[in-house]
Design brief:
mainly alpha
C-alpha cells in the first residue's frame, strides 16, 4: 500500500497540473502535513522490507509461546514501535525539507538545485558508511536473534519498546542514506527503489557490511566528481 501511494503521488506530481501546483509551495499547516504524510508513507515502504526477518522471528516466537500456553505480546506491538521511530524521523525530514526549501536549495520537484549540497550529502553519506557508529547499528540490524535475546521485554508495552529500540538502530544505520533522496529526488521512484534495495541488501547479505563500505567509497568519489565538475 505504501508503494502504491508513492506511485500515485509521483505520477500526480509529474502531470502538468501537478507540476504547476508545486511551483511555489506554501508551507502552511496543510502543506506541512501533506509532506509529513509523504515522508511517513515513504519510510514505511522503504524500511519494512529490511525489517521483515526480525518481524518473522518475533512472530515465530509469539506463535511458539502461544502454543505452549505462555503467550507474549502480539507482533503488531513490536511493528508499531518500529514504525513509530520512523514516524519521528519523518517529522524531522519534513522540517529539513522546509528549511532547505526556505533556503532556496530545493527545486519544486524536491531535488537539490545546489551542487554543493548534493556533493556534500554524497560525501557525508560515504564517510558515514565507515564510521564505528554505523557498524554498531548495522550489527543489530543484521543480527535479529541477537537483538531479541539481548533486548527482550515482556508485555505489549515491552514489545513496543523493543520495536522502538530496533527502529533506533535502523535509524542510526540508514538516516543519512535517506538524506540522499534530496540528491536524486524525493519523489523519484527509481531513486527510492535503489536506496530501498541497498538498505535491504546491506542488512541481509552475508557480506553486506563490506559492500556498504565499498558503496561508501563510491559515494565519496561521486560527491567529489560532482563538486569538481560543478565548481
Amino acid at each position: 500500500m505504501s508503494w502504491l501511494y508513492l506511485v500515485k503521488m509521483a505520477v500526480g506530481m509529474s502531470m502538468p497540473e501537478g507540476m504547476l501546483a508545486m511551483q511555489i509551495p506554501a508551507w502552511d499547516a496543510g502543506y506541512f502535513w501533506m509532506m509529513f504524510l509523504m515522508w511517513a508513507v515513504m519510510m514505511v515502504g522503504m524500511m519494512l522490507p529490511s525489517v521483515t526477518p526480525m518481524v518473522l522471528i518475533y512472530a515465530g516466537i509469539a506463535r511458539k509461546s502461544a502454543g505452549q500456553g505462555m503467550p507474549v505480546a502480539p507482533t503488531g506491538a513490536f511493528v508499531s514501535g518500529y514504525i513509530a521511530m520512523w514516524l519521528i524521523f519523518s517529522l524531522f525530514a519534513t522540517i529539513a525539507q522546509w528549511g532547505l526549501d526556505q533556503a532556496a536549495l530545493l527545486s519544486p520537484m524536491m531535488v537539490s538545485n545546489s551542487v554543493g549540497l548534493g556533493a556534500a550529502l554524497l560525501i557525508a553519506a560515504g564517510i558515514y558508511q565507515w564510521l564505528p557508529i554505523k557498524d554498531k547499528c548495522l550489527h543489530h540490524c543484521r543480527s535479529p536473534v541477537h537483538f531479541i535475546t539481548t533486548h527482550w521485554r515482556p508485555g505489549s508495552i515491552g514489545a513496543f519498546k523493543m520495536g522502538l529500540s530496533h527502529g533506533a538502530f535502523c535509524l542510526g544505520c540508514c538516516w543519512i542514506l535517506m538524506s540522499l533522496l534530496f540528491v536524486g529526488g524525493v519523489m523519484n521512484l527509481f531513486w527510492i527503489a535503489v536506496i530501498t534495495l541497498f538498505v535491504l541488501l546491506e542488512k541481509v547479505l552475508p557480506f553486506g557490511d563490506v559492500g556498504g563500505r565499498v558503496m561508501g567509497l563510491l559515494m565519496i568519489t561521486a560527491g567529489g566528481i560532482i563538486w569538481f565538475i560543478g565548481t
